[in-house]
Amino acid sequence: MKIGFVGLGNMGGPMAANLLKAGHQVAGFDLAPAARDALAKAGGGGATSVAAAVAGAEVVITMLPAGPQVRQVYGGEGGILDRAPKGALLIDSSTIDVESARSVARAAAERGFDMLDAPVSGGVGGAAAGTLTFMVGGSEAGFARALPVLQAMGKTIVHAGLAGNGQAAKICNNMILGISMIAVSEGFALAEKLGLDWQKLFDISSKSSGQCWAMTSYCPAPGPVPAAPSNRDYQAGFTADMMLKDLKLAQQAAQAAGATTPLGAEAAALFQMLANTGAGAKDFSAIFRMIRGGER
Ligand code: NAD
After folding, report:
1. Closest Cα to residue 229, out of 281, 291, 267?
2. Overall pTM surpassing 0.85 (yes/no)
3. 97 CA to middle of ligand 1, Å?
4. Domains present along the chain, CATH in parentheses
5. Which of 81, 106, 120, 256 is most buried by its number of CB atoms within 10 A?
């Protein structure tokens, strides 16, 4: 298929490379020339504008930082809605606010395009390995058309409902994750104060009702889960800044929808504190170090 790809950063670069590996033709644009060169080296076409990237495309994929960039790249003058060929399927995989996702999808529909929001989880490792999880919002027909393309970049692809529901699934999941990482951190910090060995707490709690992914796959206390970032000085992984971004999106959505999310609000405040200590680029599980106290 002919694919136009806009946003070739840490995630978009390897995602576009996997599309090429699967035999698709990819023309890509990024503001950063180095990102365009990397795509050209991988066998794609490095385009010098959004218009050039989407010319003749059957599918357009975007992987941009946040809502303002997505609104600009789609709706701005010379943007995707102006320049994509009639009938092209539009897929935004950036993590953005639900409201922006729905308003861009509405604008796309008014111009006759089918548009999906398809944010991902799985991080840079999943993008490179082609094992991302896609959470997709939009029409059934659009989802069916997107499936073979998304399968070249991901392993688990779930249709979450109408436009915006992919973003909704992403921020609900990450709010649960942010809160549960703090809960596990408090438990392990308390255990230390009580003279309870972390490994012992892990052996018991990972088989008890406190069990959760933040503990069993990503334990923030060093030791019990060897592959976790806590064993390599909290090198990311998934950065604290990214978690903060998603928690803020969750709060924005909760306020707009009138949902009660007091622990989500507290989690956003705590990750903001962590970022303020200069640890924003560390893995988000470094929240344990802040809760435990000090740089031990
Ligand atoms: P990134 O900053 O590495 O990449 C974004 C790219 O978009 C950059 O290369 C930038 O130059 C480009 N860009 C910005 N504005 C542009 C414009 N107007 N036109 C063309 N290109 C433009 O970010 P990333 O890590 O690749 O993340 C992309 C999205 O994926 C974000 O929404 C992020 O929240 C989400 N995400 C990231 C991860 C992760 O682990 N990195 C995991 C899941 C989801």
Report:
1. 281
2. yes
3. 14
4. 2-162 (3.40.50.720), 168-292 (1.10.1040.10)
5. 120
